[in-house]
Write a structure and sequence with these properties.
By secondary structure, this protein is an alpha+beta fold. 30% of the residues lie in helices and 20% in strands.
């Protein structure tokens, strides 16, 4: 529940209830003022960004929120002592990269409090997506006094957390599978928060969630597979196309077999994404076309989408895959390979894992896939240790397409394969600095980087995910997003 350390969507969905960002993303996927009173003011050179925050904002203990609390939050994220796995997400701020590397102190980060209500950010380069970039909960206010009092326990239990958002977390000790949120009476917009309490229950089996929903015990639950077809056309079913990429990630640095490019390409071409999307996911997702999701941006010169302009770079070619696999076995001096595939233990992930196992073992004779279905936290831990064979992962970047490339850059925390490439690093550096606001040049570099990652099979894109839910038709006022948390219910209400 620590907004400064979170990096996964499971955590961020919960953090959104209690951590107040400067800006929120509305139903049109645009940033709108939230804790900030207006959109940011940007200097002519694009390097200085000024944000004014509300004077009446308070933490859930009644203490006033000031600009200094946001400065501290940002400094804490990039401070190596914090160990944040999202530190590089703030690399657009001056000195962040050097602080993360340990060559500068966190106090030298390019963000400062001009007054109790005014913030000033100094950027490395002009950021065309600055409004949405500043909507991250990494920049939600954090009380230095409270964090230091809690020490290493901060954010690990309900009692060790101080809310800045509309709700306060209750009845959670770090391992509970149910908890609740109670309305924060000190929240600046408390008058527009409808619910006094929201109960949350972890349900790993979709059938259980559906049964509880039908019994009137849940107002919302996620659905997958056959349940999407079952509820198709009913007002209860709400589907949200997202920019989340479901990928097969490879422990290239830790598995000698996966260091063979032909083996990785065999895995890339042996997979039938269309079949997976329709037969397994029941349309809850569309086949990936590359590393960058379709719909996040268009060619600035001709308006073409990622799919139309970059082309479909990942596709099925079983004969090509089999030939590549045969050559890989010869180069590796073996007639068989066994790889362990780790997935989260939810219905959908288990089904995808089983499908991958079947397809790979069928299409690539001599390849054996051992499945390991584990709690999400265990999967995260394995991937962040960089010691695994295969893992079913996902990546939701930010509104800048660069974030989908940056994941595989050397030195980035979530470069799970530990891929090292000077060529890719130079492309990311250009995208984040010298390209500036030259959208045509940025587009060409995005295209080049996307092509590079597919050509080298650094990661295997599978599907661009959708999220489907059963939601009580009486629940109104929630907001759906293409990016980030698919549904925001913090300002929802029940229509009587």
């Amino acid at each position: 529940m620590d907004s400064g350390k979170s990096y996964d969507t499971i955590s961020s969905e919960q953090i959104d209830f209690q951590a107040d960002p400067l800006y929120r993303i509305n139903e049109e996927n645009k940033a709108v003022p939230n804790l900030a009173v207006a959109l940011p003011e940007v200097s002519k050179d694009g390097l200085t960004v000024t944000v004014e925050i509300r004077d009446n904002a308070k933490f859930s203990n009644g203490e006033k929120i000031t600009a200094a609390d946001i400065v501290y939050a940002a400094q804490r994220v990039v401070d190596p002592a914090t160990g944040s796995q999202s530190a590089n997400n703030l690399s657009y701020i001056k000195n962040a990269t050097e602080i993360i590397a340990g060559t500068l102190k966190s106090e030298e980060l390019g963000v400062k409090a001009i007054s109790d209500t005014k913030l000033e950010f100094t950027l490395v380069a002009p950021n065309s997506y600055i409004n949405t970039t500043l909507s991250s909960t990494l920049l939600s206010p954090v009380s230095k006094k409270f964090v230091e009092k809690q020490g290493k326990n901060y954010g690990l239990t309900a009692d060790a957390l101080l809310a800045s958002g509309p709700y306060v977390l209750k009845d959670w000790n770090g391992t509970d599978i149910s908890w609740k949120y109670e309305k924060n009476p000190y929240y600046w917009d408390a008058d527009n928060i409808y619910f006094d309490k929201i109960n949350v229950q972890v349900v790993k089996e979709v059938a259980t969630g559906v049964n509880l929903y039908e019994a009137g015990e849940l107002d919302g639950t996620k659905v997958t597979g056959e349940y999407i077809s079952l509820y198709k056309g009913k007002e209860d079913l709400v589907s949200v196309q997202t920019l989340r990429m479901t990928n097969l990630e490879m422990g290239i640095s830790s598995n000698k077999y996966l260091q063979n490019e032909k083996l990785r390409k065999a895995l890339l071409y042996a997979l039938n994404r269309e079949e997976l999307s329709t037969a397994i996911l029941n349309g809850d997702g569309i086949p990936s076309v590359g590393v960058i999701p379709n719909g996040i941006a268009v060619n600035p010169d001709n308006g073409k989408s990622i799919a139309d302009d970059f082309g479909t770079l990942v596709y099925t070619d079983v004969k090509k895959a089999q030939q590549l696999f045969k050559e890989a076995l010869q180069e590796l001096g073996t007639d068989s390979i066994t790889l362990r595939l780790v997935t989260s233990d939810t219905d959908e992930n288990i089904k995808i894992g089983q499908y991958l196992q079947s397809v790979y073992e069928t299409n690539l004779p001599g390849l054996k896939i051992d499945l390991a279905n584990v709690p999400a936290s265990v999967r995260f831990e394995e991937m962040m240790s960089y010691k695994f064979d295969l893992a079913l992962g996902g990546w939701t970047g930010d509104f800048d397409p660069t974030s989908y490339i940056k994941q595989h850059e050397e030195g980035y925390e979530h470069n799970h394969s530990q891929w090292k490439s000077k060529e890719l690093k130079n492309l990311v550096t250009a995208l984040e600095t010298t390209d500036g606001t030259d959208f045509s040049k940025r587009w060409e570099h995005l295209k080049e980087a996307n092509q590079y990652l597919v050509d080298k099979a650094v990661v295997i894109p599978i599907v661009q995910a959708s999220q489907s839910y059963l939601i009580n038709p009486k629940l109104k006022g929630y907001v759906t997003h293409v990016l980030g948390t698919p549904i925001d219910v913090t300002h929802a209400y029940i229509e009587e």
